[in-house]
Amino acid sequence: MPSLPWRDIDTVLLDMDGTLLDLHYDNHFWMEHLPRRYAELHGVSLGLAEAELGALFRDNAGQLQWYCLDFWSQELKLPVRELKLETAHLIALRPDADTFLAAIRQAGKRVILITNAHRDSLSLKLERIELAPYFERLISSHDYGFAKEAPQFWDALQADIGFDPARSLFIDDTLPILRSAGRFGVAHLLAVREPDSRKGPKDTEEFAAVDGYRELLEGL
């Protein structure tokens, strides 16, 4: 990965799940734990639960409701917030993410969290991982009513925090979101090579990717 032009970067925008936190928690919850609990609580087979949830996931992927615990609680008739607590021991920071956060704050960069996570999910993770002190703001896309995939999110973010896209770095593990940021004009974009520690590296296509956070600090 080429070293970052830190002299040209004032604002660092960071995703949470899969970027600063290991995506294993979320993948395990949505793809394994939730189908199992859905089957138990609704009295259906695991196979049927997986089929029903899979169809709903495909229909809602990339839209704001996909990230909304209220939506899923109503749709599935399950207490999704409470179920998420059952696997909360899996919430984990990615290696050296805290070192990176401390260094960029120390260097005087403006550091802002932008996540599609519902506020309840954000709170759950912040209770277990001390991320908040590193950030000027913690922004959920639910605050604006648009997921990060949508151009309206970036318009709302600009109106809210007044950042210069040409002098900003954005790191996210979701390629459609990075493309949305690029269309808005964010100049420095990085994907994440291995958002889920249990699944191995992924193809980040046109984007350079973070393999380890310490390597980003060169030249800071």
What does the model show?
Its EC number is 3.1.3.5. This is GMP/IMP nucleotidase. One of its GO terms (cellular component) is cytosol. By secondary structure, this protein is of the alpha/beta class. The protein folds into two domains: 6-22 and 92-217, HAD superfamily/HAD-like (Rossmann fold), CATH 3.40.50; 25-89, no CATH class. It is built from eight helices and six strands, in the order E-H-H-H-H-H-E-H-E-H-E-H-E-E. The chain has helices at 24-42, 46-60, 69-76, 80-85, 97-106, 119-128, 151-161, 175-184, and strands spanning 11-14, 110-115, 137-140, 168-171, 188-192, 209-210. The chain has a six-stranded parallel beta sheet, with helices on both faces. Strand 4, helix 8 and strand 5 form a beta-alpha-beta unit. Helix 1 packs across helix 2.
What is the strand and helix layout of this fold?
Blueprint: E1 11-14, H1 24-42, H2 46-60, H3 69-76, H4 80-85, H5 97-106, E2 110-115, H6 119-128, E3 137-140, H7 151-161, E4 168-171, H8 175-184, E5 188-192, E6 209-210
Parallel strand pairs: 1-2, 1-4, 2-3, 4-5, 5-6
Relative helix content: 40-55%
Q: In percent, how much strand structure appears in the residues?
A: 5-15%
CATH superfamily of the largest domain: HAD superfamily/HAD-like
Domain count = 2
Enumerate the spans where pLDDT stays under 50 for 5 or more consecutive residues: none
Order of helices and strands: EHHHHHEHEHEHEE
For this structure, the quaternary state is single chain
Overall SS class: alpha/beta
DSSP summary, beta strand count:
6
Mean pLDDT: 94
Q: Remind me, CATH topology of the largest domain?
A: Rossmann fold
Organism: Pseudomonas vanderleydeniana
GO molecular function: 5'-nucleotidase activity; metal ion binding; phosphoglycolate phosphatase activity
EC number: 3.1.3.5
InterPro entries: HAD-like_hydrolase_sf (IPR050155), HAD-like_sf (IPR036412), HAD-SF_hydro_IA (IPR006439), HAD_sf (IPR023214)
